[in-house]
Amino acid sequence: MSPRPGIDRHQLLQAAAELADQGGFHSVTLAALAGRLGVRSPSLYNHVDGLPGLHAALTQYGLQILHERLLKAVAGRSGEEALRHVCIAYVEFARTHPGLYEAALQPIQPDHADTKQIGDDIVGLLLQVLAHYGLEEAEALHSVRTLRSLCHGFSSLERGGQFAMDLSLDESLAYMIQIFIQGLNAQRRD
Amino acid sequence: MSPRPGIDRHQLLQAAAELADQGGFHSVTLAALAGRLGVRSPSLYNHVDGLPGLHAALTQYGLQILHERLLKAVAGRSGEEALRHVCIAYVEFARTHPGLYEAALQPIQPDHADTKQIGDDIVGLLLQVLAHYGLEEAEALHSVRTLRSLCHGFSSLERGGQFAMDLSLDESLAYMIQIFIQGLNAQRRD
DNA sequence: TTGCTAAAACTAATGATATTAGTTAATATG
DNA sequence: CATATTAACTAATATCATTAGTTTTAGCAA
Lengths: 190, 190
What we know:
DNA-binding; elongated; HTH_TetR (chains A, B); Tetracycline Repressor, domain 2; DNA-binding (chains A, B); 71% helix; homodimer; Tet_transcr_reg_TetR-rel_C_sf (chains A, B); transcription regulation (chains A, B)
């Protein structure tokens, strides 16, 4: 134990995530976080390495939770059902935690191996989901990039209010997944 | 004419775009822009409505140029060829002007009707490209959302260094477009 | 219990930024 | 050539991140 307990790290990350979800990733400032934790800004330097360190920590935290959600979505499922559910879980996470999701997709610093690892775990999970389609290695990797582009693009555009038209977003999502699945099936046949 | 010429608006936007391409959208500050233009920051308030106004202006400028590039890409082309070229032009724009692209996809303020219009023009252009597939209205709109998700997701992840694996990005892009086209064709047959 | 130590909080100070108010300078037009 | 308009400027304020140095607190050992 420390000579003095101070701020709990999970409580810090949770508070930062709430700030992000309320005002976007850029609104996660040391001043705002300190205010929410009832502490002066310089005190936070005992817990994170300045603002960049806070941002990096939130990125890792976001990736962890995203990974958990995706794991839950594919648990006990396989094939097309697993694929549909993983896409929906991805978008749902971005919807319910927009700021934390935004944090999760910030560029990862080259020296943060543990954060990188979580990203790789997510890629591995998606590879496993796509294994059902029996693609060759390179094709499987291209497919994962396509899937990530779809899910991230949809989430990002939705959050940014870029889908302004009066048309169901959930129907668009279902349509998008369908297009991807049919494209994959066609690819498999070639 | 003005009693005093001052800074040319196009020159201002060009300088802001260069700042964005060099250091990202967030590095477009009044101080940095003023420095580049050889002027003090408060002088910029004669040309843009503070930092939010500068950002909004850069968003509109980015959308304009993106629209131009997409128009050029589809000029004299049709069907699958137009679709492939519009995707490639989209991603190429994001690659060569990462910061301006980032600006173009910032959320649009509800009161900026002219900026919104350019976004609608881009959607209209994509609808025209997809007309070749003879989809029903709702399906066509879902397809445009899918296409935008793909292109934006790919561009955004690529720029963020999220495609870390040692695997050709251009092959991934071509694969992605192929999946989309095959998905569309399957959709059309149903 | 009491004193020591380690860690976390604090205050004070600095530098960068956006922004506003008020002033000066330059130029197109009569 | 005088004027009005507009764009530039300086000065000042508030917010933020950051660093340095100090104080406080809580676990632990004597």
